[in-house]
Amino acid sequence: MKYRAATIKDIAQALGLSTSTVSRALRDSHEISAATKQLVLEHAASLNYHPNPIALSLKEKKSRSIGVIVSEIANSFFSQTINGIESVANEKGYTVIISQSHESFEKEVRTLQYLASRSIDGLLISVSSATKDLTHLKALHQYGFPIVFFDRIIEDIATHKVMVDNFQGAYNATMHLLQQGYRRIACITNSAHLSITRERVAGYIAALEKHGIHPQPALIKYCFHGGMLLPEVTDAVNQLIKLKTKPDAIFATSDKLTTGCMRALKKAKVAIPGGMALTGFSNSDLIELLHAPITVVRQPAFEMGQVATELLLQLIESKRPVKEFETRVLQSELLIPPR
């Protein structure tokens, strides 16, 4: 038998009431007596009745849902961010629809078109590593569609943005390596045009220059797919260890790049830190379980999700067009394992 959800009409017929009376009772209207409300609610519960979200969205002209686009849910940073997003959205009565771009511009565009066609009320997005053309985002924004960028932000679109202090996080990580005595430090980073890449590479360079070390282009490797393709990271690591004067340490600028470097070094039989030191951005708890845990930059991912969602809901629920926007910069933490 095909499943059919209970309706207000079913409740009304069973109780001998009008559909309008049942509807008002379910909405706790003052026009309906307490006894009738209790009768309606008890029968609704027995039928496992739930309001039709499509009907409600048509009535309210809102779907009470928000879209989220990230590169990959399996990434520990993004999974923690999504937990933060859902904690706020669910409390406010919003449903969260999550999609992955897998670092593909084309998939990001298709996903955004799909979500917009489902009448979501707003969007949280961390753009893909391949996103250079912003036409799809600018078009929605120009129509007044609420968008908030987090992590990988877009400077060209005037809206709320939430990020960490990428420069300081990278600076702290590189300084830690320098203080440990490493001097030839390589950097393996994301796609060159991303905001997080520019800021983290700048922090890495500033730390080197603070110690009088001139940054060498040969020691900076850009991975277009940001670690999602392990062969790309492996190739970058292999290029570094094959240099005539190879680096004595690597700084990786994202979760996937950090774990990718670990795998590539293990495959090349280079011990960490004996053969080469490694530090990087990572929110994975598995780092702590390693035989030789590495120092990592931990981002406040859960808080980032919460803050981004609160800002998006402000845009959605504002009675007037919002013209003043915030860029929230959160602080990361350098986690140094005990010796």
From TrEMBL:
Xref: SUPFAM superfamilies: lambda repressor-like DNA-binding domains (SSF47413), Periplasmic binding protein-like I (SSF53822)
UniProt keyword DNA-binding, yes or no: yes
Keywords in alphabetical order: DNA-binding, Transcription, Transcription regulation
Pfam families membership: LacI, Peripla_BP_1
Superkingdom of source: Bacteria
One GO MF term: transcription cis-regulatory region binding
CDD domains: HTH_LacI, PBP1_LacI_sugar_binding-like
Residue stretches making up the HTH lacI-type domain: 6-60
PANTHER family found in the cross-reference section: HTH-TYPE TRANSCRIPTIONAL REGULATOR GALS, LACI-RELATED TRANSCRIPTIONAL REPRESSOR
The name this protein goes by in its record: Transcriptional regulator, LacI family
Species in which this protein is naturally found: Chitinophaga ginsengisegetis
Lineage: Bacteria, Pseudomonadati, Bacteroidota, Chitinophagia, Chitinophagales
